[in-house]
Amino acid sequence: MKAMILAAGLGTRLRPWTLKHPKALVPVKGVPMIKRVIDRMKKADVDTVCVNIHHFGDQIITYLKENDPGVDWIISDERSGLLDTGGGLLQACGILFEKDDDPFLVHNVDILSNADLIQLMKSHEKSGNDITLLTSGRASSRKLIIGKDSRLRGWHNTSTGEYRPEGFVSEEGDREVAFSGIYVMGKGAYEHLNRYAEDRHTNVFPVMDFFLDNIDKVKIGEYYSEDLQLIDIGKPATLDKANEAGIDLLNDEFNGE
After folding, report:
1. Given the DSSP bridges, would you call strands 230-232 and 175-185 parallel, antiparallel or unpaired?
2. Domain 2-253 in CATH 3.10.129.10
3. Across-strand partners of 52?
4. DSSP characters for 215-235?
5. pLDDT tens per residue across span 178-227
6. Which of 84, 121, 76, 98 shows the shortest CA–CA distance to 9?
7. Checking DSSP bridges between strand 72-77 and strand 48-53, what pairing results, if any?
8. Which of 23, 95, 101, 201 has its CA 20 to 30 A from that of 193?
C-alpha cells in the first residue's frame, strides 16, 4: 500500500524549534514525528511512502537516509516553493499514481492517533468514494458537515459562525464532525484535482478548498471513528501533552519502538 506524509509545513507554531529544524523531526518522547507516523503506517501494510518537503527539507532527507524507515520512500520536493496542502497533494499524486492506480493514504506529519488505518482503507474500497476522510466526534472549532448519505456537504467554523460553501443551507440528517488530517485519495479524484489547479491558474492552494469547491463533482465521504484518540502536536501545549511522563492515550504510538 502507498501513502503520503505531509511534512512540508513551516511549523510556525512550534518556534523556536522550527527556526532550525523541520516539524517532521520534532521528537515526541525522543522519537521524531516522521518515524512515529511511518511506524504506524507500516502496521497498516504501507510499503511505499511519499514525503513532501520544503522547510529544512535537507534534514528530512538526511534523516531518512541515515535511519532506514523500513519502507520505500520517495521525496516530493517543494524546496523551490511551498505548494500548500492541495498543491502538495497534486504533486504527490503525479508521483504515486505513476506507480499504480491504487488509492493511497494521506497523513499529516503532526498527527498522533490510534486510528485504524487498515479499516479506513477497507471502508474507502467498499464505499466507492473518490476520497474518504477520517472523522470523529472530538472537540474542534472547525467542523465538517456530513449529509445523511455520509457525503461531505460543507464546513462550519463554530467560533465565527462561518459556513462554506457560500450560501450553505442545512438539511435534515446533517451531522457536524471533526476532520483528523488523515484521508484516502483515490485515482478518480486526481483528474478533478488537476483541473481545479488549472482553472485557478495556480498549483498553490489548501486541500480543503478543493474538497469544498468540488462537493458536487467528487465523491467525498467519511469513515467515522467512534473511539478515535488524536493529538495534534503542532502547538506547544499539545506537544507538551504528548511528551508528558506516563501518557498512554495512544497505545502503540507511545509504547516503544
Report:
1. unpaired
2. no
3. 6, 76
4. TTTS-EEEEE-TT--EEETTS
5. 999 999 999 999 999 999 999 999 999 999 999 999 999 999 999 999 98
6. 84
7. parallel
8. 23
